[in-house]
TrEMBL record:
Alphabetical list of InterPro entries matching this protein: MecA_C_sf, Neg-reg_MecA
Name of the featured protein: Genetic competence negative regulator
Superkingdom per UniProt: Bacteria
Record PANTHER family: ADAPTER PROTEIN MECA (PTHR39161), ADAPTER PROTEIN MECA 2 (PTHR39161:SF2)
Stated family: Belongs to the MecA family.
TM region positions: none
Length: 206
């Protein structure tokens, strides 16, 4: 579990699939009201307080993004939710009423694949390995001093997603950044066909 402060009233939490499985939670469970999911939210808020001083008392807006290769991105914003103006209470509120949290939970699923690379030379290596599977795919960003490769599901050949993710995981690291954050805060280096462009302009190291 990785926690990052985005502002005075906002944090981002990155949960890997290992984080979920260690707690007996499947990705699909995040869409259901079950005690272990509530326990996970409580644990996240406790850790957020101890690590970055985020006080989760009062109303919270919680956005959960499921990413296919990376895990879950949870964005928590404090003070943005008032159920009196949202047509009724959150489905999570009743079970959590004994605690300090009131949550308005939004769940979204994305098939976008995002991997970051510390070194451009490593990205070149990965691109050459991927070239036969992803000749005309990829959008490349520079974000937080890292190179981030963005792949959409329609760019992937059917049945090859697992192999592509295995290569990406070997050379890069799953990132918790969302496509919207890349568009807003990142720099677009290659708008499309990043794999092909990299391979045509940069050779692998001997």
């Amino acid at each position: 579990m990785k926690i990052e402060r985005l502002g005075n009233d906002k944090i981002r939490i990155f949960l890997t699939f290992d984080d979920l499985s260690e707690r007996g939670i499947q990705k699909e469970d995040m869409w259901h009201e079950i005690p272990k999911v509530h326990d996970l939210f409580t644990e996240m808020m406790d850790q957020a307080y101890s690590e970055v001083g985020f006080d989760a008392t009062g109303p919270l807006a919680v956005e959960v993004f499921a990413l296919p290769a990376q895990g879950m991105v949870v964005i928590v914003t404090r003070g943005k939710y008032d159920h009196h103006h949202h047509g009724g209470p959150s489905p999570y509120e009743d079970e959590m009423s004994e605690e300090v949290y009131e949550m308005e939970v939004t769940l979204e699923q994305s098939d976008t694949i995002l991997y970051s690379f510390d070194d451009f030379e490593i990205l070149i290596e990965a691109a050459h390995v991927l070239q036969h599977m992803l000749a005309d795919a990829g959008r490349l960003y520079k974000y937080n001093r890292k190179w981030v490769l963005h792949l959409e599901p329609e760019e992937l050949e059917e049945g090859k997603q697992a192999a592509i993710i295995a290569v990406l995981a070997e050379f890069g690291e799953a990132t918790s950044v969302t496509p919207a954050m890349l568009e807003e805060y990142g720099d677009v280096i290659m708008a499309d066909n990043a794999i092909g462009v990299i391979c045509s302009h940069f050779k692998r190291q001997d």
